[in-house]
Amino acid sequence: MDVILDVLDTLVFDRLYAAVLPRHSATKIAHYFPSNGTELATLNESVNRYFALSPSKWATQSILPRDHLLRQSLSLFLITWLFGIILYFLSATLSFHFIYDKRAMKHPKFLRNQISMEIAQAVNAMPVMAALTVPFFLAEVRGYTKLYDFSSQAPFPLYTYLQYPIFIAFTDFGIYWIHRGEHHPKVYKHLHKPHHKWIISTPFASYAFHPVDGWAQSLSYHVFPILFPLQKVAYLGLFVFVTIWTVMIHDGEYALDSPVVNGSACHTIHHYYFNYNYGQFLTIWDRIGGSYRKPNRELFDREVRMTQNEIKKQVEEMEKLVKEVEGVDDRCYETQTEMKKTL
């Protein structure tokens, strides 16, 4: 994140802070900040390890120097929030238009105005999730993690390749237990229930969380570089991968039938039947924890999965489990709306 911060400081934030809080400001708040004595020669050290980028002429023209805690916090919040929004809409929109089986929108458990509600919930949650994530990114920028720049700095040569499966294994373990804990009755109704509003999910449901729920399920990603070495470019790549993967497991396209990988079919079972398949990437912890449920064979047949008999079986079990887990079902389904229109 320090490299990204150097780049965006140079291209965007230096000029922004210089305009809003100029160095020679006569405003009342100026005396709360120490003089910005930063020298241009000391800036962009992180990004210059990768490629040459000269600081902008505004780099020292704000009362908030680049390394000020408040400025870094505000900048990291904006980066996390805005890039999260962009990646969410880009990946979810592409998935919805080119991958998602839109016949699912005719399922009796698809909600009225569901897509707009999914988007609204995701958009409302993202700034809060971004704010809660800022302390971890501050730790990275200020050197409190084990992130490193180049493969030559890895603990040993093979680690360049091992960091990826280690990251997946560690984060999947953490997410499994956090996610399973959120299904405890005393936690579920306050925190995780908003995400289970979408029994028949779309790609736009991928980040339609209660903000604390979404943040909690991301904790493993941020704890990993505190405990384990991780190359910086690999870290950024893995975050993009995690975002896209989260969209993919909500895309309703059951291309992967694997006993090991927790793909879209496994996660669909979780949304259908609540108390199964808590893992994010793998099925191993569900198998060990006794919560694995193999996806129905019918899901992998595009014709069979939308037949009346199959949907009827799904709905019967769904309604039983909704009653067990939530008590009263307060969702407003599209089919209920259509029925009212015909009366």
UniProtKB/TrEMBL annotation:
- Keywords annotated in UniProt: Coiled coil, Membrane, Transmembrane, Transmembrane helix
This protein is called what?
A: Sterol C5 desaturase
Gene Ontology biological process terms in this record: lipid biosynthetic process
Q: What is its main location?
A: membrane
What residues does the Fatty acid hydroxylase domain cover? 166-290
- What compartments host this protein? Membrane
- Look up the record and report any one GO term of the cellular component aspect: membrane
Q: Which InterPro entries match?
A: Fatty_acid_hydroxylase, Sterol_Desaturase_Related
Q: What highest taxon heads this organism's lineage?
A: Eukaryota
Q: Which residues cross the membrane?
A: 74-99, 119-138, 158-178, 233-250
Q: Which residues form a coiled coil?
A: 304-331
Provide the species name.
Answer: Aspergillus oryzae (strain 3.042)
Which GO terms label this protein's molecular function in UniProt?
A: iron ion binding; oxidoreductase activity
Pfam families in the cross-refs: FA_hydroxylase (PF04116)
